[in-house]
Structure formats: C-alpha cells, structure tokens
Amino acid sequence: MDFRLLGEIEVQSGGRPLDVGTPRQQVVLAALVVDARRPIAIEVLIDRVWDHAPPANARPVLYAHLSRIRGLLRQTVAPGGGTAARIERRHAGYVLEVDPELVDLHRFRRLVEQGTDRQRDEEARAAALAEALRLWRGEPLAGLPGTWAAQVRRSCHRQRLDAAVWWAEAEFRLGRPTAVISAVPDLTAEYPLAEPLECVLIQALHAAGRGAEALDRYGAVRRRLAEELGADPGEELRTVYRTVLRGDQPPPEEAGAAPRTVRPGPLRSRAAASPPAVAHRWTDPVSEGVGTPSDAGVPAPTRTTAAPRPGSTETPSLPEGPLGHLDAAATETPSSRQRVRTPHRRAVLAALVAMVLPTATGSAHVLRRDEGERDENDGPQAPSFELARELFAAAEAFDQEGKAREARATVVDAVRLWGKLIGLDPDRNAPLLAPAVLRALGRAGVDFSVLRPALLSWLGNPVYTPYPAISQVILLQGWRFTAPVFLDVVVWNYEHTPGATSPRDVADVHTDVLKAAVLENTRTRHGTQVTEFDQLLKH
Questions:
Q1: Which of 48, 51, 320, 520 is most buried, judged by most C-beta within 10 A?
Q2: β pairing state of 446-451 and 322-325
Q3: Per-residue confidence (pLDDT) for residue 342, from 0 to 100
Q4: Residue 286 near residue 222 (C-beta atoms within 8 A)
C-alpha cells in the first residue's frame, strides 16, 4: 500500500495502481493525505477544493467525493492485513487514518529530519537525505487545480531544495565532490535562482580540480541573476567565488553544525515556471559600478555619432553635476565594498588571465554577431569582460591592503585584457568596463572635471576619442600622482602639442608627450612650479 503525492497523485495496493478519480476528487484525497491523522473541518475542505468560491451545492458534491474515496480506500490492503486507510468523521472534521510511512510526502519529511539530526554521524545524515530526495517523481500534486495545491507544491519545493543543499554539503564534507557534480546540475536546472545549490556545486568543481568550470559556472549564475532578478550574487556565493579565484580550498564546515534553511529569493521550479512579465537587464553589473545601476550604465555610442571631443564648445545636455575627484570611498557601493576587501593571490590572477586571454578573441567575436548567431567552430562564450572587472576589483583590494606590488601587477593584467576587448568590439565591450577604469584612474590620482556620462562615453569610445589609449598608458605605467591631474586637461594638452597625433591605440601614445601634457596640466590648473615629471609621482 502506498500513497504518492510527490508527482502525479497515485494510490497503489499490492503493486497495482488504483483509480483516484477526477481532479476535484484528487484534491479532496490530497487534502486528507497531506494532513493525515489530523481532522480537517468541512469548511476547510471546501476552501481547498474550490478556492473560496464554492458552488451552491458544494457540501453535497464534497460528500459524494468522500464517499467515492472511501470506496477507493476499501481496496487498499495494509502490510499486516486489513484496510490500510480509512476516513473517519469526528467532531472537528474529517480525518484520514493512515500510517504516515505509507505516504511518500511524510516519509520524505521524516528522512529529512534524520538528515538534519546533529546526533547522527555525517554518513548517516547524507544517506537519509539521499533517500528522501529519491522519493521525488516529479511536480508534487501534478495537475491538481487550485490555490491550496499550488501552496503545497511551493512548500514541497522549498523542503526539497533545503534537503538537496544539505545533502550536497554533507557529501562535500565527506570528500565526495564527484557525487555533487553528478547530481546537482539537474537540480540547478529546476531551481535556477537557488544560490546555495550553486555555491556547493562551484565548491565541488573546484575541489575536483575543475577550477575553470567553477569560474565559468559563477559567471553564468551571475548573468542569470542579473537578467531574471536584476540582482547581484549574494555574499556567500561571492565568497565562494573569491575562494576559487585565489586557488584556496574552503575550510570544511563543522560536521555537527546545524543545517541552515535555504532562502533562495523568488523560488521557481522550471517545471512550474512561467516567463517573468518584465525582463530585468543589468546595465552596470556587480563589481565596478559608479553610483547605482540606474545611473551608471551608459549606452554604447554608435559609430555614426561621435562623442563630444575634449576642448570643444559643445556642452553635453545631461542633468549631472561635475564628477570631481573620483576616489574609492566616493564611488563604492555596498556590494563593491564586499567584493574588494578579500585579498587575491597575484599568481592565480595571472594564471587566470593567461587562461582567458586566448579565448577572449572568440568571446568578443560572438558578441559582435547578431543575437542567436554562432559559428560551430566558436568555443563557449567566455565572460572575458567580467574577468576584467574582477581583476580591477582585485587590484583595488590589494591597494586597500597596502600591497602595492600586487595591485600594480593586477592592474596591468586588467588593462591588457581591457585593451584586447575594446580592440575587438569597442561598441559593446568598452562601456561595460568604463566604470572599472574610472575607479582605477581615481586611485592613481587622476581627477575629472567633466560630466560623468560624458566621461563614461569617452572611455568607452576608442574610435572617436583618445581617452581609452591615454588612460591605458597611465595605468600600465603605474603612475600615481601626488598633485591632482585632470584627465580631460591632459588629453587636451596632448592633442594640442605641436606635431602630436591624437592617439587611438596604446602603441600610438608617445610617453614623453604624455608626460609633458601632465606637467602642463599641473601648471595651468594648479600653478605649480614642478619642472620634472618624476616630482609628480608617489615613490
């Protein structure tokens, strides 16, 4: 005898399925089985079946369903003989008398309790959770109508998700990452917004020596959260990512630690999901935002309209005040602060750049095509611009910790990747990285007296302005200025130096001309008497 709710509702006796009747009758049966051995008032049953809008003859119809269910239950046989289940009428309502062990939902809950019992050893807990998860056959109460059935489904999915995370974490602590890697991807396909599942999967991939896949997985999750929720990854997922990025192994959790309850935000099983009414697009993702996502994202300039050139009389009609000095404190957001405070190992970052740079060309090539177009020879779309942002964030972390050498080397890696990306597809790749570049320039002592949207546009437009090339050289040279240096003035001075050509590439920038332009900036803006460029630099 077996009652099955974790999938299409089924009642089996002696290994053969019984006819459970119409969907309405199944709702009545499910309402009794879910609350087995607990009385349910007739008014509650009516609400569960008809969603607070019952027909005029609701009671007679319900009595008819109960009568047919009694006939169904008389066909069931208990393991020791006799009827396995029966419906009784009590003062408080109707109650289904049945052994909870005969109901898959109740067995599932009992096994989950065993899997979270801190008195049991880790192996036993993992085994209990695995057995609980194997009871699932599909969408709970599949096909049953009504609000109550939908609520039960949501509750079951949350319990399953909790159990899956606890099982995966137990397997990981037991040193079996391959079991996690085998099982969890199918679950993440059903629960695409459940970050705790992704956390343990990324950890397992890293522990199994598949660090590149772990990083790719994080990038895919990050994009999914941005597209579907307009949100950053949570702190736990970012911490796991930084651990992988540094090449560290996460410290094992205490085996007897109390399991946490998974709260993945808006829970959506793919089996019951419907497309969101509004697709949220994240214009200034995660790490390097200047201001908020709503005001920091600047549309990529087109090739038909040039951005205003420095020194021109054209005034951008933008409702923004001057940007002023851009230091880390002025521009960081709570999410960016959380990211940059964890140290990163220089050697691992360099290895990552070496790994990703060969795929950057393919990635940008895919981005240049119309959406959906893809050549069969192209490799997977690598999130190269995301890696560049992470490198800029890592450099900021090193800088805050006073690790000048590591910060300098990481900035060089970030700038080189930035240059590669804007060389391949400036219209799409450059605007994504412009906010990160602003932060790096601000830490170098570069000020800006132009409007922020215009500056973002210029940094994202190497075809029409020299800003990207000159900014790259400043960062690659590792210059850090003691006196404020205004980038727009430096660019103007450079372009008006006799015999100088406005650069559009790093190779076009003449360092001696750039140094002279910086010196002229300090004299015209600050009236300094500095005559040697090195006097402007921090040593």
A1: 48
A2: antiparallel
A3: 38
A4: yes
